[in-house]
Amino acid sequence: MGKKKAISRNGIEGLIIPNKWDENGNIIGIAIHTDKEEVYVVAHNRMEVELLNQLHIKVRIKGKIMQRLDGNKLIHVKNFQRILDKTDESN
After folding, report:
1. What is the pLDDT of residues 35-56, one digit of tens each?
2. What's the pTM?
């Protein structure tokens, strides 16, 4: 992994998707895909475990965004909020 530099403390919105699997096919890492086709890898911390239970859900995330030397973006999640769409409201 390369060194990281902070690029933002803002939030992002996007869909939570699996990003890394172990040799048995279990999900061990997640990322956020935004509507702008950006991908933010979620840093390993307590919030990552909570987000694992929200796979394929659109969320608004607040946290510290870093960019690794390899160009990938990493977000250290401080908190998140589920974004409801019209289909969620009708249920």
Report:
1. 999 999 999 999 998 999 999 9
2. 0.81
Instruction: Give Cα 45 distance to the centre of its chain.
Output: 12
CA–CA gap between residue 69 and residue 54 (Å, rounded)? 29
Q: Can you give the three-state secondary structure of the chain, one letter per residue?
A: CCCEEEEECCEEEEEEEEEEECCCCCEEEEEEECCCCCEEEECCCHHHHHHHCCCCCEEEEEEEEEEECCCCEEEEEEEEEECCCHHHHHC
Q: What is the CATH number of domain 4-84?
A: 2.40.50.140
Span 65-84, pLDDT tens digits:
999 898 999 999 999 999 98
Domain boundaries, the chain: 4-84
